[in-house]
Design goal:
8 helices
């Protein structure tokens, strides 16, 4: 692939947490490939974590602590699900097959490609930012398209990796919204704290 990164040594922990920052700064990569890699940087594990933490803190300071908590649970559970699926599927990264020009890749969750963690984090982060700043929705949608294409063009992921990431993120978002609607929906027939019975709503005029 013309835009594929070809590291000559094992990536450091920093390289993994900020993947693909090393590919953006690598002198051997051409300018188009660097731009494609750069478009995926906001979804790097550490960058996405910091951005999500800021977004959740913003929700809490806006007087929405329950929403902030539910977002936190959704992001954490999604990260656990991603790691679990990768451990089960164990699909190696595409560039792992390039053993002639590239160093071998260690077997760990960072180096399994299905589902795409960048896609999962990018989609969740985009929805979180869109909730905070609705005016950015068109820009965020455009970024998601560019990022998804870049992941495939740079051989970071296959189309099925990206599709798996989209599916996992959408499931998390669906559960997030269902959870919030359930928790925020007021009880129609609250129980009487003295009798324990269910109170019937009053008809017009105050007659049960």
């Amino acid at each position: 692939m013309p835009y594929q990164d070809r590291p000559l040594s094992q990536p450091s922990l920093w390289d993994q947490l900020m993947s693909p920052l090393a590919a953006v700064t690598r002198a051997g990569n051409n300018a188009p490939s660097r731009l494609l890699f750069a478009s995926t940087l906001p979804a790097a594990p550490l960058a996405a974590f910091v951005a999500a933490a800021i977004g959740i803190l913003a929700l809490a300071t806006r007087g929405q602590p329950r929403r902030a908590l539910v977002w936190t649970l959704a992001l954490v559970s999604c990260a656990i699900a991603e790691a679990g699926i990768k451990a089960l599927v164990e699909r190696p990264l595409i560039h792992k097959y390039d053993t002639v020009r590239q160093a071998s890749v260690t077997k760990d969750s960072f180096n399994h490609s299905f589902p795409s963690g960048h896609t999962v984090r990018g989609l969740l982060l985009a929805f979180l930012i869109a909730e905070l700043v609705p005016k950015l929705r068109p820009l965020l949608a455009a970024w998601l398209v560019v990022m998804s294409a870049s992941l495939v063009l740079t051989s970071m992921h296959t189309p099925t990796d990206v599709a798996g990431g989209v599916l996992l993120a959408l499931v998390a978002l669906a559960m997030l919204n269902q959870r919030v609607r359930f928790r925020l929906r007021p009880a129609r027939n609250p129980r009487n704290p003295h009798t324990g019975g269910i109170e019937e709503p009053l008809a017009p005029g105050g007659v049960p």
